Amino acid sequence: MKRMEDRVFREFLQKKGLKFTKERAAILKGVFSARGHFDPDDLLIKMRGKGIRVSKASIYRTLPLLLESGLIEQVLKVDKHAHYEHTFGRGHHDHLICLKCGKVIPLYSRKLEKLQENLCRKEKFKCLTHTLEIRGYCLRCNSKSGLS
Amino acid sequence: MKRMEDRVFREFLQKKGLKFTKERAAILKGVFSARGHFDPDDLLIKMRGKGIRVSKASIYRTLPLLLESGLIEQVLKVDKHAHYEHTFGRGHHDHLICLKCGKVIPLYSRKLEKLQENLCRKEKFKCLTHTLEIRGYCLRCNSKSGLS
DNA sequence: ATTGTAATTGAGAATCAGTTGCAATTATAA
DNA sequence: TTATAATTGCAACTGATTCTCAATTACAAT
Ligand SMILES: [Mn+2]
Ligand SMILES: [Mn+2]
Ligand SMILES: [Zn+2]
Ligand SMILES: [Zn+2]
Q1: pLDDT digits over A119-144, tens only?
Q2: Does any strand C atom come closer than 7 Å to the Cβ of A33?
Q3: Which residues of A touch B107 (CB under 8 A)?
Q4: How is chain B split into domains, by residue range?
């Protein structure tokens, strides 16, 4: 059974006059078999672990295509590198990031999304995407941190 | 007349057992004489232009201190480098970023901030900071872009 | 004012994510 | 099957940020 995301990506590429190569297919598969967030290097290592040979360059070249096709989203820049997650089949969400343990908690609020849209409308700004990152301490880390 | 931010920074440093050096003072001054956003290199160039000699290293070492002291905020990672702005005396705000012309429009909504706080409370997440970046097209770029 | 000491500095080397040039390979439409 | 433009891996390259280290300096305690 062909996965739906293959279809989407294939059509996206076709529309741009680009090729659906085995490398791109493999990267797509690798991306979609990730449970949560990943960065380009995670992906490379995971694929190599499974014996799939793709170059770093191809990964870096393919991720922007997946991004453009809407199959993945760039989540944030942790430390100094980009993180992604696939969003096809899942909904958009924002992130709470624990500064102590690094946990990333998804957050979705319809109300919040609507409010943002309204604010943009008011500014006459055509909103395409957004990233909201809230940093602080998760429940566990906050209770452990001594302060009452 | 001594600037208020000098005082704040000095006290911050003292509390941490760090020194208020002339380099740090100069960097602080450079930061606060910037109108809007800046990145480390902007700052370096501007200071050199004024004949103030500080090393790149000192700038990169001082910015995190200013961040920690609450005098500046990290705005976002454009391209691949960090951007900052001083927020002392000004309020916190989020950003609308035009993908075409690069314009950055400040956005503040009390309602939005409150909503975020409530959401965090609901998740029992101790929120310290957040960054909201909305990307799309500004009024001017959107009307120019042909699509109706 | 002098001194002791830990913090700081500048310069350049090092690091590291991400990009690029290029020759060999491959998808795909005709 | 062929023509052709797109793609690949590799290694060299960027450019931002961090680090190393010897020389300097702030500043608290004499
Ligand atoms: Mn997520
Ligand atoms: Mn701003
Ligand atoms: Zn945590
Ligand atoms: Zn614009």
Answers
A1: 999 999 999 889 898 988 999 988 86
A2: no
A3: 119, 123
A4: 1-90, 91-148
Q: What is the CATH number of domain B1-90?
A: 1.10.10.10
Instruction: Tell me the CA–C1' distance in angstroms for B16 and C6.
Output: 13
Is the minimum distance from the CB of B130 to strand C below 7 Å? no
What's the pLDDT score for residue A17? Answer: 95
pLDDT in tens, B22-38: 999 999 999 999 888 89
Between helices B22-32 and B4-15, what is the axis angle to 10°?
140
CA pair distance A140, A37, nearest whole angstrom: 21
Helices first, then strands: H and E counts in chain B: 6, 5
Query: What are the chain A neighbours of B128 within 8 Å (beta carbons)?
Result: 99, 135-137
**Rounded CA–C1' distance between B77 and D16, in angstroms:** 11
Residue B148 has pLDDT above 60, yes or no: no
- Tell which CATH classification among 3.30.1490.190, 3.30.1510.10, 3.90.180.10, 1.10.510.10 matches the domain A91-148: 3.30.1490.190
Residue type for position A33? S
Q: What one-character DSSP code corresponds to residue A108?
A: -
Tokens of B59: 């700038």
